[in-house]
Description:
single chain, Rossmann fold, globular, 7-stranded mixed β-sheet, alpha/beta, about 30% strand
Amino acid sequence: xxxxxxxxxxxxxxxxxxxxxHWSIFGEELRVLAQRWHQGxxxxxxxxxxxxxxxxxxxxxxxxxxxxxxxxxxxxxxAAKFDFKAELSLADVGHLPYxxxxxxxxxxxxxxxxxxxxxxxxxxxVELRRVLKxxxxxxxxxxxxxxxxxxxxxxxVTVSWRKRDKTLExxxxxxxxxxxxxxxxxxxxxxxxxxxxxxxxxxxxxFSRNICLLxxxxxxxxxxxxxxxxxxx
Length: 233
């Protein structure tokens, strides 16, 4: 049996994912951001089972959205296990249930590459910008088109997850660095840093597994950008 509808897929994956990805693979990057941002209202887009919240337990007011009710169930379990509170909502990242200019910061780990359609990916980033305060920052990760495992693949792929008698097909749009940066700028963000994950050590970033993007909300309300040192790698 093959399951393709993405919400169904992630509902099915949730129990195994809770164990398989019990710790964030971007723990170091997120700890640096927690130190950089210090405090405030933080939104986790596509929060999954909640592992990416951990570095922000102290000083932050935490919110998360995911389109999978099963993932949110495990996020509540994760929050209880590690003694933190997060306001969780069942929602699509393209239609966020928040007022304009609500959040100081946002993170989105491995979410936007699951959005099918160029217009839909753009609209999701515009929606993110809508709920961020002026000059708020966001950290986004996606899979890189040019990582070796996908050299001979199209930009739109499905990746299998096997569960007993089922094969669950996860959709991915594989980004290049340039494509993600251009899309963020088109949506109104300033790109502060575009880099590989910290665990990647080759001198050329082109072949990293992930693209890590740190962006700032565009100039609004007469505010000007204040350059801050950025070093996540």
